[in-house]
Design goal:
heterodimer, A: mainly alpha, two-stranded antiparallel sheet, elongated, B: 516 residues, mainly alpha
Chain lengths: 77, 516
C-alpha cells in the first residue's frame, strides 16, 4: 500500500454504495418516461443519457482516486 | 467495382491480422500463460479496445441499428445502461477481484478459479463444459454470418462453405500463431477502426440530409413514438431484462471473463474503468442513431436485410458503404478469434488436462492450446456447414441466440462465491447447475422457437406438458427467463450454502484479499 492511498472509513463506504446505486438508477431518465421534448435536434431524454454516462466516467475517476479497492478486499495500492 | 473493392478490403484485413499475428508470435514466450493471457501484461489502450472490440463487434453495425430502426432510439439507453454502466461496475466488482486473485494464485480460467477454492475437479470441468456448451454455437453463428455475408457480397460467386471456410482458416492461422497478444492487438486496430467509421458515417449522412434537426424531424414524422421515451416494445421490464441479463451474461462469456485476468497493473485497470462508459457512448450513440433515423430518411426498414448499409448506400458513395460492410465482417472475426482462444483454454486446462491425468509442462500445454484452437474452429465450421445444410429447422442456432442468457446464469453464483466465505461447494454447484437446467428448459420450450418448425422438441414437449407453465420465456408481465433464472441461481447458492457444511477439500481463504 502506498502512502497516497488513504484508508476509507465506514461512512465513505456507505456513501460510495449510494453513489453507485444512483449512477445505476438514473442512467435511464425514468422521470422523463413518455416525454417527447426535442432539444438541439435530439430527444431530451437522449441528452440526459449522454450527459449521465459522461458523469459516470467522472464518478468512476473520483472513485479510483479515493476509494479504489473497497469491497474487493483491502485497499490495494 | 464495389464488389471487388469489398472483397479486397476483407482480404486486406485478413492479411493485416495475419501480419500482426506473426509479429506477436515473435514476441511471445512458449508458455500457456503467455499464449492465453499475454503473461498478464496488457496496457490500458489495448485492454480497453480488446474488451471493447470483443464485446461489441458486428452487433453494432447490423443487429443494433436494425433494432433502433424497428423500435426507436431507446435502444441506445438499453445498451448504455447495460454495457456502459452495469458492465463497467461489474468489471470492478467481479473483474477487479478476479484480477487480484489471478495475480495471487495464477488463475487462467473461471473454472480453474472455482475448482481451486472449492477443491473439486468436477466443478472446474463442469463450469468449463457449461461455458463451452454456450460458446460453441455462438462461434458457429459468427462463421455462419461471415459465410453468408461473403456470399451476399459477391452475389453468390463465393459459396457459403468457401466464405465461412476462408475466414475459419485465416482465424486458425493467426490465433494459433498469435495467442492473446496478437488477438488483443488486432482488436485494438479493429476497435479504433469501428469508431472512425461510425463517426464518419454519422457526419456524412447528416451532411447529406441537412443536419441533426432535420434527421430527427423526419424520424418524428415517420413514427411519433420514436421521439417518446418508452412505450411499445420498450416496456420497463424489457429495458431491465435486456440490460441486466446481457450485462451479467457478458461477464461470464469466456473471452470477456478471461480478459479480467490480463491487465498489467492496478493503474491500467483504473484507467480502463474510468474511460469505459465514454468509450461505449462514443460507439453506440452514432451507430444506433443512424438506425433510428433510417426509416425517416427513406430506407424501407421492413424489407432491407440490414438498415445501416442501406442508409449509407443512399447517402454516401458506394466505396464508403463497402468499407462499413467489410469493417463489420472484420468485426465479426475479431470477436470469433477471442472466442476460439478462450474456448481452447477452457477445453485444454479444465477438461482435457485434468481428466486425462497427464502431467504437462508449460511448453506442452502451450502446444496443446494451439492444437485446441484449430480443433475448436474446425468443429464449429463443420457444424456450421451441417447446420446450413438443414436450414429451416431450429437447430443449434437457438442455443447461440440465447447464449447471453446462459452465461448470465453463471454470474451470481460466482459473485456470491467471490464475496461470501460461507459459500459451500454444494451451494455454488447447485446454484450453477440448477439455474442452467431451468434456463435450458425455457429455451427449448416450443413457443420460443424461431420459425415454426418444432422438430426435435415435439416429443420432449409432451413429456413436460404438466410443467409447461413453469418454463415460460417471460414471467410476471415481461421479465425475461434469463433474469428469473439468475434470481433462482442466487437463492439456491445462498440457501444450499446455509444448509450444508463446507467439504473438507475446500479452501475458504482462497478468495480472501487482505490489505497487504
Amino acid at each position: 500500500m502506498t502512502e497516497s492511498i488513504h484508508m476509507v472509513d465506514r461512512s465513505e463506504r456507505v456513501a460510495w454504495t449510494v453513489v453507485f446505486a444512483v449512477v445505476l438508477a438514473l442512467a435511464v431518465p425514468w422521470f422523463m418516461w413518455r416525454s417527447d421534448t426535442v432539444v438541439a435536434g435530439l430527444p431530451l431524454w437522449l441528452w440526459w443519457h449522454v450527459g449521465w454516462l459522461c458523469l459516470t466516467s467522472v464518478t468512476f475517476y473520483v472513485f479510483t482516486q479515493r476509494a479504489w479497492g473497497i469491497w474487493v478486499g483491502g485497499e490495494a495500492a | 467495382m464495389s464488389v471487388a473493392l469489398q472483397v479486397g478490403i476483407v482480404v486486406a484485413y485478413l492479411l493485416v491480422a495475419l501480419g500482426v499475428g506473426l509479429l506477436a508470435y515473435r514476441l511471445s514466450e512458449r508458455t500457456a500463460e503467455d499464449y492465453y493471457l499475454a503473461s498478464r501484461s496488457i496496457g490500458t489502450v489495448v485492454l480497453l479496445f480488446t474488451t471493447f472490440a470483443t464485446l461489441l463487434s458486428a452487433f453494432t453495425f447490423f443487429a443494433g441499428p436494425n433494432i433502433a430502426a424497428a423500435f426507436g432510439p431507446e435502444w441506445i439507453l438499453v445498451m448504455g445502461l447495460m454495457d456502459g454502466v452495469i458492465f463497467g461496475l461489474l468489471w470492478y466488482v467481479l473483474g477487479y477481484k478476479q484480477w487480484r486473485l489471478g495475480q495471487k494464485h495464477g488463475y487462467v480460467t473461471l473454472g480453474e478459479m472455482l475448482g481451486d477454492r472449492f477443491g473439486a475437479r468436477w466443478l472446474r470441468g463442469g463450469v468449463a463444459f457449461v461455458s463451452l456448451f454456450w460458446l460453441f454455437p455462438y462461434v458457429m453463428l459468427q462463421q455462419d454470418g461471415a459465410g453468408t455475408a461473403l456470399n451476399v457480397l459477391t452475389d453468390g460467386a463465393v459459396p457459403f462453405w468457401a466464405g465461412a471456410g476462408l475466414i475459419t482458416v485465416f482465424m486458425i492461422l493467426y490465433v494459433v500463431l498469435a495467442g492473446m497478444r496478437g488477438v488483443a492487438w488486432t482488436d485494438t486496430l479493429q476497435g479504433a477502426f469501428m469508431l472512425v467509421v461510425v463517426w464518419t458515417a454519422l457526419v456524412w449522412v447528416l451532411h447529406s440530409v441537412g443536419g441533426v434537426g432535420a434527421a430527427t424531424d423526419a424520424m418524428g414524422t415517420y413514427d411519433g413514438e420514436f421521439l417518446t421515451l418508452g412505450g411499445g416494445f420498450y416496456a420497463v421490464p424489457t429495458f431491465l431484462s435486456n440490460a441486466v441479463g446481457i450485462a451479467f451474461g457478458v461477464t461470464m462469456f469466456p473471452q470477456v471473463n478471461q480478459r479480467f485476468f490480463v491487465g498489467k497493473s492496478e493503474a491500467v485497470l483504473k484507467r480502463s474503468f474510468v474511460l469505459w462508459p465514454v468509450l461505449v457512448l462514443l460507439l453506440f450513440v452514432p451507430a444506433f442513431l443512424l438506425g433510428a433515423w433510417a426509416g425517416g430518411l427513406g430506407v424501407d426498414v421492413g424489407s432491407v436485410r440490414n438498415v445501416l448499409p442501406a442508409l449509407l448506400g443512399d447517402h454516401t458513395p458506394s466505396w464508403f458503404a463497402a468499407v462499413v460492410v467489410a469493417g463489420a465482417m472484420a468485426a465479426m472475426m475479431s470477436s470469433s478469434d477471442s472466442m476460439l482462444l478462450s474456448g481452447s483454454s477452457y477445453f485444454t486446462r479444465d477438461l482435457y488436462r485434468p481428466f486425462t491425468g497427464g502431467e504437462t509442462d508449460e511448453r506442452r500445454e502451450d502446444r496443446l492450446g494451439r492444437i485446441g484452437v484449430a480443433a475448436f474452429a474446425l468443429s464449429t465450421y463443420a457444424m456450421s456447414l451441417y447446420n446450413n445444410s438443414i436450414s429451416g429447422t431450429w437447430s443449434l442456432f437457438r442455443i447461440g441466440d440465447t447464449a447471453f442468457g446462459g452465461f448470465a446464469q453463471l454470474a451470481l453464483p460466482v459473485a456470491v462465491a467471490l464475496y461470501w466465505r460461507r459459500t459451500t461447494r454444494a451451494g455454488v454447484a447447485t446454484g450453477i447447475f440448477a439455474s442452467q437446467a431451468f434456463f435450458l428448459l425455457t429455451v427449448f420450450q416450443p413457443e420460443t422457437w424461431l420459425g415454426d418448425v418444432p422438430v426435435v422438441g415435439a416429443t420432449l414437449v409432451d413429456a413436460w406438458a404438466p410443467a409447461a407453465g413453469v418454463f415460460a420465456s417471460t414471467y410476471f408481465g415481461g421479465w425475461g427467463a434469463n433474469v428469473v433464472g439468475m434470481a433462482l441461481g442466487l437463492v439456491l447458492t445462498v440457501g444450499v450454502s446455509l444448509a450444508t457444511q463446507p467439504a473438507p477439500e475446500e479452501d475458504r481463504s482462497a478468495y480472501a484479499l487482505g490489505a497487504d
